Amino acid sequence: MSDAPLISVRGEAVLEVEPEIARLSVHVQSQEPDRRRALDRLTEHNRAALDLIGSYGDAVEKVETGGLVITPLVKYRRREGDIRAYQGTVLIKVTVADFTVLGELVTRLGDLERTRVDGPDWDLRRDSDVFRRAAEQAAQEAVARARRYAEALGARLTGLVELSDEGLGRDESMAPVALAGAFSRAPGDAGEPEPIALEPEAQTVRAAVAARFTATAPDLG
Q: CB within 8 A of 83, min separation 6: which ones?
């Protein structure tokens, strides 16, 4: 085993960047006294929401159906078979890449009948270059810090013994806010709703590494 001096350091990097995508959760509902009618109405509302989302073309990066539920609503909890209505819900997950249309899309979705919108949840793509940049900067900081220690002792770095990743990720954003539901159009309302102004939330990406370097003998004189 080498008896060369070792210098152990920790390198860190913190990047604050603009989000790359925004996620919306669109809840489409129906409620009717008849099960089939509830399902038919749910299908209509779901198609209206999908058609509206699809009209934005490439501005919407991804559309996914998160699930469908038809639930009987009973009049009294202790009595079985006394059903007053059937409630249907479809969850549509939307990923938006063009923020210039986001405010308009949110308000128009919220203006649809029996539709609720949660979001936006600002995010970075999984393969975002920001994560690579943060990792590189953390490693470079570890080298620079070790070199400063070596120079302070009159030594120089001669090799890398170990480099370990201590974590790479982003700070969690605040939970999505329900922006719609209060936007449901009242009878008699006309025209499109005014687009809501949305300001993207900055994303903080952090990276940290631990590193050990060999060095020449220090000058302790």
A: 72, 73, 74, 75
> How many CB atoms sit inside 10 A of residue 203's CB?
19
Quick one: pLDDT at residue 188? 46
Q: List all residues 6 or more positions away from 172 whose beta carbon is below 8 Å from its beta carbon.
A: none
Distance in angstroms (rounded) separating the CA atoms of residues 116 and 109? 8
pLDDT band at residue 73 using 50, 70 and 90 as cut-offs: confident
Does residue 91 have a pLDDT over 80? Answer: yes
In one-letter notation, the amino acid at residue 102 is L
User: Residue 166: its pLDDT value, please?
Assistant: 86
Provide the residue count of the chain: 221
* CA distance linking residue 75 with residue 219, whole number of Å: 86
Of the ranges 42-51, 103-112, 142-151, 177-186, which one carries the lowest mean pLDDT score? 177-186
Question: Is 177 a residue whose pLDDT tops 60?
Answer: no
What b/e string do you get for 207-221 counting C-beta neighbours within 10 Å, with b at 16 or more?
bbbebbbbbeeeeee
**Proportion of the chain in helix, strand, coil states, percent, rounded to 5:** 25, 40, 35
Q: Angle 189-185-39 (CA atoms, 0-180°, nearest 5)?
A: 130
Indicate whether 83 pLDDT > 90.
no
CA-CA distance, 60 to 56, in Å (whole number)? Answer: 6
Give the whole-angstrom CA distance, residue 57 versus residue 134. Answer: 32
Provide the 8-state DSSP code for 155: -
